[in-house]
Amino acid sequence: MDRIDFRSDTVTQPTPAMREAMAKADVGDDVFGEDPTINRLEEMAAERMGKEDGLFVPSGTMGNLAAVLTHCQRGDEAIMGDRGHTFLFEGGGVSALGGVLVHTLPNLADGSLDLVLLESAIRPEDMHHPITRLVILENTHNRCGGVILSKKYTEEVGRFVHNKNILLHLDGARIFNASVALDVPAKELTGPANSVTFCLSKALCAPVGSVLCGSNDFIHRARRIRKMLGGGMRQAGVLAAAGIVALEQMVDRLPDDHRRARQLAEGLAEIPGIRLSFGMPQTNMVFAELTEKITKTGMQIVDELKKENILIGNVGPRNFRMVTHYWVDDLGIEKTLRAMKKAVS
Ligand code: TLP
After folding, report:
1. Which of 90, 150, 170, 309 is most buried, taking the most CB atoms under 10 A from its CB?
2. How far is it, in rounded angstroms, from Cα 72 to Cα 167?
3. How far is the CA of 322 from the centre of ligand 1 (A)?
4. Pocket of ligand 1 (CB under 6 A)
5. Which pTM value belongs to this model?
C-alpha cells in the first residue's frame, strides 16, 4: 500500500485469507440462531475470553452499549474513567439510550482507576441515591496511550466490586494487544469481569465486528438488547468468517505492531521539537506532541505529512496519535520518521 495510515488500527483492510473465507462462508439467519459461522465465532470468542457464551455485534460501541444496558436498569449508575472510550467516544449512548448515569473517576496515567476513589464513589444504600450497578475498565487503555492493565490490578478491582455486589464490564477492544504484550492468555485478563467486549476489526484486521462475552444468562439477555438496538444481522456469517481468521491468524503477529510502535517512538523522541506524550508505547499506539519551540500547529504537521501520503491522528492542537498495524511495515516507519523530521524542521 502506498498510503501509510496511522490514524487508527480500525483502518485495517481484511487480509486475502479473510476475503477467501468470507466468499466461502456457510451462512444462515443469525436472528434465528441459524448462522453456523457466527455460532462458531461466538464459541471461539467465548473460549478465548474464558466465558460461557459470546454475541457477535457490529461494533465495539454496540458491544459496550449492549453490556451496559444488559447489566443496568434506567437510573442506575456506572462508574468509568474520564478518559475511557465509553465516556468519551460512544455518543453518550449509555445515558441517551439506557438512562444510565455516568460517574467518572480520573484515569491514572497507567489507565487504572484509584481504588480509594472507587470506594468513595460507590453509593451507600439510600433512596436519595442512584444505585451503583457497574464499573467499567478498559484494556488496553486507548487515551492513556494504549497502556495495559495488569492481571493483578484487574483481579483486585474484580474482588473489590464483587464484594460490594457491583458488576464489572471490561472494554477489551484491544485485549489481545494486552495479552501478547504480557504473554498472558486473554482469559486471565478478562477472568474477573462479568462481561467483556473485544474487537475483531481493529488490529486483527477483520472488516467489521466485535464480540461481547459473558455468562449464558447474560448473553441470553444481551441478545434481546442487541435486537432492540437493531444489531440482529441475519446472514452475517460472511463477516464472522473474517473474524474467525482474525482469531486464528492475526493474534500471534501483534508483537510486530508493538515492535514497530517502539521503533517509531524511539525515532520520534530523537527529533528536536517532538516529545512523546506518555513515554514509550506499551502496545501499538504512539502519542506525541510538539514542544513549545515549534511554531507550526499540529494541523500544519498533519497536512505536510498528508502530502507525502502519510496519515496521522490529530488528537489535540499540538498532539498526535499514531497507531501501528498489519498494513504498516518497517519501510513505512522509516519513511514516516524522515517526513516528520522534515515537517518540524
Ligand atoms: N476506538 C477508535 C475511535 O473511536 C477512537 C479508535 O480509533 O481507536 N473501545 C475502545 C477502547 C476503542 O478504542 C474503540 C474504537 C471502541 C471501543 C469502539 O469500537 P467501534 O469503533 O468498533 O465502535
Report:
1. 170
2. 9
3. 14
4. 8, 10, 59-61, 85, 89, 138, 142, 171, 173, 199, 201, 210
5. 0.97
